[in-house]
Specification:
One of its GO terms (molecular function) is isomerase activity. It is built from 11 helices and 30 strands. It is of the alpha+beta class. α3 crosses α6.
């Protein structure tokens, strides 16, 4: 059995902590068993390790999330990277072609697909493993997991099985799907034995490969990559599930929650405050999450979420907080904080002048042993001021050690790289006509190759 974890999302519902590069699954706000903060993706990966599924799992994601996943999972997860965001059908199709043509997975192998961020007990992943037997025993094209509802929610879709009561040891054929009904309809569905659709399903690899062939799409990974931008932006539910007749479902009777809004996320945080600040004693059921270096005080406010990050500040009633997605769509600012495979950076200031020149100031942290690639820029110069740690700079083929207080000028076209010997922090001031991440021409990523190049240049 192989697992495909879908990691997507644009990060609007948990603004301002989440953004286009840091979706909800990457927010480190959950306490683990050691009282350390971890993200949803770190929590789920830990559960996969506990159940022995990590070596059978790959993460399907977009280019903008690759560095974040590599950083948070320490490079342990295999990745399938979409060249552009196209919705869940193209993402799953790409994963299937990768497993088939790159990893040589048998067409008879069961493939399970699930979100990268469900908030569940460990036993949920044992239930995921049960899908393999269900596919074999039932002969179904698709097998789903349905969660036994605990209340009549209008936020979730419902799976209606043919049998009103499905035993946990059995599976049932799926009669129909109902998407996000009203509360009264949800009560009726629950009384009929319907289950919450948690977005987990399985199929034999040949089922999806046959669908790709029937649609005239490539089944080989490299070929599908080339045509990826031409694939329709459509969900797997609409493109495959709704057109599949032979579907079965197994029930899951345990804790499951989608932590997609501030009111649901804060229910599971375990602590009321992260970061600098004070919450007054008469502020009940109030949470403060502060990523800024200035204190935030919450006084006499109950049932409120206060979230502050370099991207903005949110003060909201928890019940009203899901509406934030409607409002932040108007914001078109670049992400002010990003995690990368080498560390993180935070934008401190961004200014544009009448003459067309721009200045961007970043605080950058590079983890010990990690490095920035050997690169150059065409449209900007940079000034680096080192404030913490010790590192090694490669500049136009020459190596030098840098420490706090050192200042380095990098002009447009200069080839440069940086490695942290210890955890290294610097202030970077960019200046130019167009300050964008795309103005990075990477020459070499591996530091050993950078040092070898410098050695050869100096020998000559």
């Amino acid at each position: 059995m192989k697992l495909v974890l879908l990691s997507g999302g644009s990060g609007k519902r948990l603004w301002p902590l989440s953004n286009d590069s840091r979706s909800k699954q990457f927010l480190k706000v959950l306490e683990n068993e050691n009282a350390n903060l971890e993200s949803m993706v770190q929590r789920v990966w830990g559960q996969l390790v506990k159940t022995g599924l990590e070596n059978s799992s790959v993460v399907s994601t977009s280019k903008s999330q690759v560095d974040m996943i590599l950083s948070q999972l320490n490079g342990e997860a295999g990745l399938i990277v979409e060249p552009s965001r196209r919705d869940t059908f193209p993402a799953i199709a790409l994963a299937a072609s990768y497993l088939y043509s790159v990893k040589s997975v048998s067409l008879e192998e069961t493939i399970a697909v699930l979100p990268v961020d469900p908030y569940v007990e460990d036993k949920f992943f044992k239930r995921v493993q049960d899908l393999e037997c269900v596919i074999q025993q039932s002969g179904a094209d698709l097998a789903l997991i349905g969660v036994n509802p605990t209340y009549p929610s209008s936020k979730y879709g419902y799976i209606v099985p043919e049998e009103e009561k499905v035993k946990s040891s059995d599976y049932s054929k799926v009669k129909l799907f109902i998407e996000k009904p009203g509360v009264e309809k949800a009560k009726e569905l629950i009384s009929q034995g319907s289950l919450w659709n948690c977005g987990v399903f399985a199929f034999k690899l040949d089922y999806l490969i046959n669908i790709l062939e029937a649609k005239g799409l490539p089944i080989y990974y490299e070929e599908l990559l080339k045509q990826y931008d031409k694939l329709p932006k459509i969900s797997f539910d609409y493109e495959v599930v709704e057109k599949t007749k032979n579907i079965v479902v197994i029930p899951y009777n345990g804790y499951w929650k989608d932590l997609g809004t501030w009111n649901t996320l804060t229910d599971e945080m375990g602590i009321n405050q992260i970061g600098k600040g004070v919450i007054s004693a008469d502020s009940t059921n109030t949470h403060l999450i502060n990523e800024l270096d200035i204190p935030v005080t919450v006084l006499g406010m109950s049932n409120v979420i206060v979230a502050a990050s370099p991207d903005g500040i949110l003060v909201a009633d928890k019940e009203a907080s899901p509406r934030i997605k409607e409002l932040v769509g108007e914001f078109d600012n670049r992400p002010m904080y990003e995690e990368r495979r080498w560390g993180w950076y935070r934008i401190l200031d961004q200014s544009k002048f009448e003459q067309g020149n721009e200045v961007l100031t970043k605080r950058i942290c590079i983890n010990a042993g990690k490095n920035l690639s050997y690169q150059f820029h065409n449209k900007r110069s940079e000034t680096w001021t080192f404030i913490k740690g010790e590192g090694l700079v490669a500049l136009n083929g020459k190596l030098r050690v840098v420490r706090p207080g050192d200042v380095l000028q990098i002009n447009s076209g200069d080839h440069h790289a940086l490695k942290a010997i210890t955890e290294l922090e610097l202030i970077e001031v960019q200046s130019g006509q167009e300050l964008i991440e795309e103005d990075i021409v990477r020459v070499i990523k591996d530091w050993n190759e950078v040092e070898e190049l410098c050695y050869q240049l100096n020998m000559n």
